[in-house]
Amino acid sequence: MRRTPRPARLAPGRPAKVRWTIRLRLTLLYGALFLVTGVLLLTVVYLLVAGRPPWAGVEPPAPPAATVTPSGLGAAADVPGPSVELEQQLQQQRSDYLRELLTASGIALGLLTVLSVYLGWLMAGRALRPLRTMADTAKAISANDLHRRLGAPGPSDEIKDLADTFDALLDHLESAFEAQRRFVANASHELRTPLTFERSLLEVTLADPDASAADLRATCERVLGSNARQEKLIEALLTLARSQRGLDRRVPVDLAALAAEYLGQPRAGDGPPGVRIGSDLAPAAVMGDPPLVERLIINLVDNAVRHNVPDGRVRVWTGLRGERPTLCVRNTGPEVLPSQLDLIFQPFQRLRATRLGGHDGQGIGLSIVAAIAAAHDAELHAEPLPDGGLEIRVEFPPAAP
Questions:
Q1: Is 286 strand, coil or helix?
Q2: Domain 249-395 classification at class level
């Protein structure tokens, strides 16, 4: 039974720590911005009002009538400004008005700030609601239900982009977990089957009281052969794990030199009889791990020889394809359907044609090729040939001079 964890208890007398959530920070930011802009607006209005003269907008008293001078000419009197008493009254009125304006504006600004904080809290909660839903869904997802997705509705905005990115990540994780489960199941089967065979062989031989020394020797030889195949399988599994982990170093490697060295070695009769190997090797320098690149070449050539037809052909080519160093291996052989191309690069997956031909391998060679190519950031292409067989091309990134 799964228990729900209890909330942590605070020590007596110790205040609770405020959690500065995004919603709280956005609310305070909205409120602070509104308060600052309100203060600026109030300051501008106050300065504009305070800058007017006290008698602005007040009409001056009517001018007195013209007087007659002894010379008989009329002289118009100058229009006086406000009297001292009137100016003092206007100044007092203006001071009272500015004080009332400042008080009323401050009260209104305070009320509007509180209202803006409340509205900011509501709007921030509404905007962050999809994030809360995504967080709850992400917490509920475990390794056993990776098929669940967020599927955030709504317009195409940053939150939906985040949800779609997370869903794509879950797709990759689900594929990786499924591949890991299949790999573990297939690897355990591939390792358990020869062990069962060896045990049965030994038990049958030992249970025969009339078994001769020749029978025991033949049994031991068969057990040693099975043990050698297990050793190769374990070595292949270690190579696959190492290539999937990534590269620890990158040094200059020439594909042509590695291919020529391997093709010059004597070969065991693993595959149909009469298979001929041809090569066209031009320099192709890459930056990578030499043992892994060598293993990639070996697996491609061995796969082309093993999955072939009697008196078939294998062609190995190295050189530059554009600016990319490229290794290309093509062979004659059974027809490969386009739908089977993804299958051949999966661990322990063998095509029906190779099983019927009786030249079955470990079923892990091309998966090692795919892992090594991915570790070197190389592009792996496989194309079925019209007359049967397959062409596999590995294009490495251009090597720095």
A1: strand
A2: alpha beta
Judged on CB neighbours under 10 Å (0-12, 13-18, 19+), 391 is middle
What's the whole-model pTM score? Answer: 0.55
Question: What pLDDT is attached to residue 278?
Answer: 92
Instruction: Using alpha carbons only, give the angle 224, 228, 303 rounded to the nearest 5 degrees.
Output: 140
* Chain-centre distance for alpha carbon 204: 55
Q: Are 163 and 130 in contact (CB under 8 A)?
A: yes
Nearest 5 degrees, angle CA 137-CA 139-CA 141? 70
Helix (H) or strand (E) holding 29: helix 22-50
- Mean pLDDT for each 10-residue chunk of the chain (401 residues)? 46 58 80 85 78 56 51 48 72 79 82 85 79 77 69 69 81 75 70 80 85 86 81 74 72 92 77 88 90 88 89 93 92 83 73 44 76 88 88 88 63
Which CATH class, in words, describes the domain spanning 174-243?
mainly alpha
pLDDT score at 76: 46
One DSSP character per residue, 211-238 reads: --HHHHHHHHHHHHHHHHHHHHHHHHHH
Per-residue model confidence (pLDDT) at position 284: 92
CA-CA distance, 90 to 125, in Å (whole number)?
Answer: 51
Question: Are β-strands 313-321 and 276-281 bridged in parallel, bridged antiparallel, or unpaired?
Answer: parallel
Rg value, the chain, Cα: 44
What's the pLDDT at 73? Answer: 45
DSSP code, position 389: -
Buried b (16+ CB within 10 A) or exposed e, 325-354: bbbbbbbbbbebeeebeeebbbbbbbbebb
